[in-house]
Design brief:
About 40% of the residues lie in helices and about 15% in strands. By secondary structure, it is α/β, with parallel strands linked by helices. The chain binds farnesyl diphosphate.
Amino acid sequence: MAKIEPVKGVPSHVGIIMDGNGRWAKARGLPRLMGHRAGTKNLRRVIRAAADAGVKYITFYAFSTENWKRPAEEVNGLMDLLAEFIDDEVRDLHKENARLLHIGHLDGLTPLLKKKVEDAIELTKNNTRITVIIAFNYGGRDEIVTAVRRLIEAGIRPDEVSEERISNALFTAGIPDPDLIIRTSGEKRTSNFLIWQAAYAEWSFPEIYWPDFDEKALLTEFENYASRERRFGKISEQL
Ligand code: FPP
């Protein structure tokens, strides 16, 4: 596809729940992991299209704290795909001035995979074109529990607890809240993704399995987003 030009009114931060890999594979008579593999490949084109369009932050929900309950073969396969994604993509992302971040707990990962993620974050830490955030071993409730523990450990008194303090104790501290969250495949659930940060996000549920969600589908989402009126609790006349 031709290079995408910057898009007017593009969301600054887009969250993506990459749903439908299993159904994509099943429809083709393939094992589920092949769907996840195709989904991993798709990250590349969506990151590039988003960066070209002018998106500054993009967060992908790759592995939730609940995904540990899936069959061991699938869990191990998803771990391998994260390693492959880093091996295959991070050098190019770095060249393209993209910064990589992780949200969630790295502690559940093997030491080798943890190191790979940490090295990729370190390598790309000064890049400024787009920030790519991988939510891996991430859960929104777990994130809030972790934040509460951090506040208590820091000795914050009850009257000092504020929305700002909680935001700054989340994994996403310093990252603006998502403007648009896209869940592919037509399922309409939040599934524990950025539940604090999504308070005023616009949501979209395109009926496309994640491996098929291409540049054109992304641009359609941006067009729809640009036509929405975000009121943040106010009425139209106050905006
Ligand atoms: C949901 O589809 C998808 C996931 C649980 C995993 C998404 C992970 C990747 C695309 C690859 C790993 C990520 C990185 C960054 C390398 P599903 O399996 O629930 O699909 P289904 O609802 O059709 O079964």
